[in-house]
């Protein structure tokens, strides 16, 4: 009996010793799961703030170009106007076409937004500040961005409206026409950098500072990429899928409420991601415009200076990105809209041969340098 009691005491002690250890392991697992979502949530929050800033900038810049007063009542200088519009759309009634395909009608806007949000996973905002440093990062962006026009086509077809369906067809045709020159320009950059990773492409431009940017080594590809990215974002003068004069707002004619707002969110998300890729591929990304040799003198390997360096890298990336955004917004309120035949002719007859020639020149220079 005494031996049994001693064994029970030993077993109870072992269980009590194991329980705190198991609880600690569970807490560690929960902490690891929560910490894994922190970078994703931080990126999503930053993207949301960036889109709100773009909407405010577009309204202010367009007001300045047209010599009128922009938003000024919702918050100081009207900075909360986009937030007020979004709140209004959330509370508006969602209407559905009586004879349309409700499933396609509902999935279309979500597919357009989600496919563009996934593109941000391969964008480096600084050194080691990237969600997924993949070896095929730039081509993953192209593959994911090609899904968005499918959502627009689904929206047009599910609306059971000939104008909406025609707008969806225009979006698909426009995307196919300009994705090919865009891909050829990206392929040229990959050959020049000997990598398809977005981080490696930025690092390849950092050796000579300002003069090491791909903008100077690929000027033809830069302009082709610039035009193609504007067409991919359906911005003026390439907003044919939403030509109000011809299609009564195109594929979003039958939409209301938050689904109507998702199309505009997708448009600005696409504009922001295209601007970030221009920065990464051609403008040196997060690097300063100085030779790579001088940078270690400013940023030594300490924790405090690593944090300061990361903040400066993010600031430089966003400064270059918003410079391109300013050019895109100015272009929208300056140039007239093209016709559909002019849009397709520009893509197939001009940009495609030019991008092919640029790829041939890049390949030849790389072979000669071996």
Give structural notes.
This protein is mainly alpha-helical. The protein is built from 14 helices and no strands. The longest helix is centred in the first third of the chain and has 64 residues. The radius of gyration is 25 Å and the shape is globular. About 3% of the residues have low confidence. Belongs to the complex I subunit 1 family.
Please describe the topology of this protein.
Layout: H1 2-65, H2 81-91, H3 102-117, H4 137-145, H5 148-158, H6 162-193, H7 198-204, H8 214-217, H9 219-232, H10 244-247, H11 257-282, H12 295-298, H13 303-332, H14 340-368
> Please, what is the oligomeric state?
single chain
Number of strands: 0
* Category by helix and strand content: mainly alpha
Q: Percentage of helical residues? A: over 70%
Q: What is the count of helical runs?
A: 14
Largest sheet: none
Give the CA-based shape.
globular
Family: Belongs to the complex I subunit 1 family.
Keywords: Chloroplast, Membrane, NAD, NADP, Plastid, Plastoquinone, Quinone, Thylakoid, Translocase, Transmembrane, Transmembrane helix
GO cellular component, one term: chloroplast thylakoid membrane
Protein name: NAD(P)H-quinone oxidoreductase subunit 1, chloroplastic
